[in-house]
Specification:
Length: 142
């Protein structure tokens, strides 16, 4: 029975899983979107959402707490820069997981995890209307 076992162990021991999620979280903060398997993306979402919530409080204490999770100085400084201001105003739900298909090597379900406010397609104010053009039907003479 799996009662009260809420985290996915990802087939790794605790130290390996902790460093894997830390590295993936810092990559997500730096690059704004990464491709990974669906199970890792879901585990990463549970790992990074509280970190972004902690970054709303701009103090030295919160920076040190976040550094204890990420272990990457550039990712922590990027998280507290002005470009993350949009993310901090959001009440929650900072990430989006999009399933992209299956990996060629082992057919694992592959997905894209991204920070919601950095996607230009969904957040742009200008939405282009596609113009529908149809061909004129040419009547054939009999």
């Amino acid at each position: 029975m799996n009662h009260r076992n809420k985290n996915n162990h990802l087939g790794r021991k605790r130290g390996h899983r902790k460093s894997l999620l830390s590295n993936m979280a810092s990559s997500l903060i730096k690059k704004k979107r990464i491709f990974t398997t669906l199970a890792k993306a879901k585990a990463l979402r549970k790992y990074i959402e509280p970190i972004i919530t902690k970054s709303k409080i701009h103090t030295t204490h919160s920076k040190r707490n976040i550094f204890s999770y990420l272990k990457d100085k550039t990712a922590v400084s990027e998280l507290f820069k002005d470009i993350f201001q949009k993310v901090r105003e959001r009440p929650g739900g900072y990430t989006r997981i999009i399933k992209t298909g299956f990996r060629f090597g082992d057919q694992a379900s592959f997905s894209l995890i991204e920070l919601v406010d950095f996607n230009e397609i969904y957040t742009s104010k200008k939405i282009k209307k596609s113009i529908r053009r149809s061909r004129k039907k040419i009547k054939q003479s009999e």
